[in-house]
Amino acid sequence: MEVTSAAINVNDLVIDRVNDIRQIFQALKSGRTTRTPMQRLPRHMRRRAMSHNIKRMPRRWRNFALAATKKAKHAAKAPSRFQRRRRRFAGGDDPTLLRTHVWHAKRYHMALTYGVKLPRKCFQKVQRNCIRKTAQGASIVDNTYFAVYTVETTPESEPSITNLLNTAAGKVLKFNQSRAQHVDLHSESLSLGPVVIRKPTPTSFEFVVHPTAANAFEALFTDVAKPQRSRAHGRARLYGPKALSTIVSAFNLTKTADENMFNDVLDGAVIVGSVWFSLNLNLPGQKPVPVTLTILSTRPHTQIDLSVPSEHFKAVWIRLVHSQCRVLGLDDEWNIRTYLGKFTYPDDAPEAVASKDVLKEETTALETKHYRRPTNRRVNYAALSPENPFDFNWEKLESEGGSELVPVKIVPLTRGVPKRFTFLYSEVDSSAPESMEVDDPPAAPSPPKVKKTFDTDENGVIEISEAPGFPKLVSMDRLFEMEPRKVLSRGMKKRRKRKAAAESPVVPEPVKLQIPQGTVIGRIIRGLRWSSPQGNHLGLGYCLRTEVDKILAEKDGIVLFRNPESRHYRQAKLIVCDRSARF
């Protein structure tokens, strides 16, 4: 049988398939490495090629590098340095940032509060200076984050809007002769907070509302009209007896030829109630800036709102700051309002629309801060009171007390300063009277510890004596240890501890209270460490109405308070505040 065999010339085959063989080896090589085409270059060529620019690769590598670059996740060109470093707030379009954000961020701790980045606390200790400036001069705070609404009226809808406002305010509101109203509006059982209302034109209303009550305010006008929110103006609030004179001197305000009521103010006219004026402020190198100045209250606690167009607000702000206006952060403003005997919305209003959400965030932050501390550095709140020291629990207090809460003010009669979350008591168990002491008794000095040493008597018998300066006693077993003690690793100790806990679970014993307990009748929401016209070491809070009536009638207004971390009860004078004028 004849067999035909085919012969293959290897040299010819390799020459014909040289490109295919090269691609096979290249594919095998690519599959075994994670290096990119840029990383396969020699070291002296890598610096220029690492910019991922195909034109900087060698010509024979460009096709391969282009295919690999298209598969890359970051094939898109990165934004330029100018684009990455631009300021979001340069145009003022970001509603979460103030126009004065840069100015404040250089001097204050910024925090996201009420949905806006607000200055909370200054880098320096300025609390006393802020109070001094407010009491004797002028201070300023940026309130641009407040929501401003405009409601257009018609002859048919104006009576219904007026009745709605009178019902929400609980009194008749008048807007004749440039009158403004600073009232606490209510929607059913919820508080919308202090709202500034004015009529800029005969057919429109303007409302300045706290941002946490914005949605509830819009729902209030659902059946009447649709409020339009405006962000075209920045707002600043000035406190202090020299607030008006500071504005006049900073912008060189003088009398005008037209019939402007502000001419009478410059002549020294007495202002009664809240009034608003339309003015033109003079800025260097610019046209007169139209602003709205609203005087909310006069001496002794002057408050003025200044509404400025957004594009000029920063210039007006810096001009006032350079005119000796002390800038306030959010914490400073809270202290100022406490100094003036006023509550703060919504943090100090249990019936506020967003009170639960705001207090929940505060409680979570305080608890997180507490549990971050080492165990041996924490305050043992459970041994002082069964109540939560980081939550007010208004609903529980009202349900157990059986009556509503009324705003009160306390002035300590002895040492002790009320703080936020302080407890109010009508009476305390008198079984341990030492808990009522004002000061802790001084600790008696303890004598130095005497060490035991060895002495030898005449007969050579060793005796133990007490004399300082000699080493302590050591047991005989420790002196003659032949084998080194076994040292357990940290992991082995943890495993043994978990095993022992699983085999014999330890039932925690109930915490024994270390101080006598009393009936909680209220809580303090603001405390002032300094003296004020309202009283020394003032405290503002809420108390049950039935207990307030009983304390005023039977105990001459004397109530007990205790700070959450304190063991002592202090006496204070209880005064009832007007709910309609608390803000």
Automatic annotation (TrEMBL):
Coiled coil: none annotated. Keywords: Nucleus, tRNA processing. Signal peptide: none annotated. Residues 70-153 form the Pop1 N-terminal domain. GO terms for cellular component: nucleolar ribonuclease P complex; ribonuclease MRP complex. One of its GO terms (biological process) is tRNA 5'-leader removal. Residues 405-576 form the POP1 C-terminal domain. This is Ribonucleases P/MRP protein subunit POP1. It comes from Panagrellus redivivus.
